[in-house]
Amino acid sequence: MALANIYQRIPKRYIFSVLAFFGMFNASMLRSNLSIAVVEIITPRVEITSNNTTRIIPAVHNWSTTTQGYILSSFFFTYTAVQVPLGFLATRFGGRIFFGGSIGLCAFVSLFTPLCVRSGSTALILLRLLEGFCLSSVYPSLHVVWSIWAPKTDKSKMASLAFSGVYCGAFFIMLTGGAIAADWSWEWVFYLPGLSALSWT
């Protein structure tokens, strides 16, 4: 049986469920990656050179715990503030557009995170506020889609599959983010999830 025939036989709501899983997976990585990278940003590194001398590379920033708290929490100020109005807009204009568009826009914006980190805490806070705004429509828009696409008998299975992407994405970035920051650089903790989410979009 040809691959095209198999694709035609699969109900489109199941294909959307798998796509929604990976969408939530990417959204979760975009939301959680700064929690991993901030450790590398504020910690000086010790490097051993080829002639066995030790060189200390200073931290990118020496942010206080208060500043780190503002930076890490800034995402959630806009994330929680506009979910209800964006849910109404998703109902009016279509959840699919808001779901895919918000992840794609946040992925694009997150690629500028290393630039904002180097510019200072204010630029990073503003960027995180924008990212929170971008991702705030993910949950309401996906619920709009399920209310239209999912029959009552399949709704719980489809929603469970899609929303499990949140936990898998957080688990994946927590598992690999430290290794990425240590082996490559902390910038790639933002570049890889951003590129992954853009390719998904």
UniProtKB/TrEMBL annotation:
- Enumerate the Gene Ontology biological process terms: monoatomic anion transport
GO cellular component terms attached to this protein's record: membrane
PROSITE patterns hit by this protein: MFS (PS50850)
For this chain, one GO molecular function annotation is: transmembrane transporter activity
According to its record, how does it sit in the membrane?
Multi-pass membrane protein
Taxonomically, which superkingdom? Eukaryota
Query: Where does the chain cross the membrane?
Result: 12-30, 70-90, 97-117, 123-149, 161-182
Q: Does the keyword Transmembrane helix apply?
A: yes
Residues in domain Major facilitator superfamily (MFS) profile?
A: 12-201
Record keywords, A-Z = Membrane, Transmembrane, Transmembrane helix
Locations listed in the record: Membrane
A Pfam family for this UniProt protein? MFS_1
Protein name listed in UniProt = Major facilitator superfamily (MFS) profile domain-containing protein
Organism for this UniProt entry: Rotaria magnacalcarata
